Amino acid sequence: MIVRPLGGGFQLITQLDHAHLARRIMERCVPLAARPRREPILLAIAEHDGGWVEIDAAPSFDAASGGVVDFVKAPLAVRQGVWPRAIARLEGEPWAAALVAHHAWFVYERFRTGADPEWSAFFTAMAAARDEQLAALGSTLDELLADYAFLRLGDLISLAFCNLAPEPLRHEEWTVRLAGTRVVVTPDAFGGAVVPFAIQAREIHGGPFRSAAALRAAFDEAAPTTLSGEVGGTAG
Q: Which of 112, 125, 142, 146 has the most CB atoms lying inside 10 A of its own CB?
């Protein structure tokens, strides 16, 4: 779950909604239009956080803050366990599955240099899942990495908006930063266009909550709200 701060409460955005927003945005990405595997790339973008569906259906109570445990603070078993489910959702789509497995391996890179055996086993499993799909296709890791750049770019654009990223986010040649409700991508990946978008969230007022039951009641009663923004190559 993505927890977006709000005066007097917070807004909740599911991981799958964030991923679907990333796909809608990247459908307008000009460099991606020329990629031979554009459709599997877009599928991977849309489904890369599919393993969070079960978790986000019942948000966890954070006793320390009286709010919701977000995707960064979720227990290790949760953060690692979502990825095999996401890959399984892509059965029959080997390129998309390989992209998602690599994403799981890549996004936790800060833990790859440690000696924690739980992380070592996770990275080994994700690399094996990725390489199994590549071997079945007769494809190389370099081919995959060229396409993965678009998954990561879409992920960062959507995260910058949904998570109100305070600092620029970077991948390869791209820098992504939030300026008000616009996400600015440098160099421009949208051919000079400004692309509007919207995403649904649950808006919860009140808190901090004293118990998981109180949070759940507020969550069940929360009304949906629409968050609107845009993405482009300049801040206007």
A: 125
Q: What is the largest CA-CA distance in the chain?
A: 54
Nearest-CA neighbor of 151 among 96, 90, 89? Answer: 96
User: Is the Cα torsion angle 27, 16, 48, 165 positive or negative in sign?
Assistant: positive
DSSP 111: G
Please give the DSSP secondary-structure letter assigned to residue 177. E
Calpha distance 188→83 (Å, rounded): 31
DSSP 60: P
pLDDT digits (tens, 9 = 90+) for 141-184: 999 999 999 999 999 999 999 999 999 999 999 999 999 999 99
Determine the 3-state secondary structure of 129 from DSSP.
Answer: helix
DSSP states along 16-27: HHHHHHHHHHHT
Q: How far apart are CA 216 and CA 219, in angstroms?
A: 5
Q: At what angle do helices 94-107 and 117-137 cross, to 10 degrees?
A: 150
Helix (H, G, I), strand (E, B), or coil: what is residue 50? helix
Give residue 236's pLDDT.
52
Q: What is the pLDDT of residues 177-215, one digit of tens each?
A: 999 999 999 999 999 999 999 999 999 988 789 899 999
List CB contacts of 57: < 8 A, sequence separation 6 or more: none
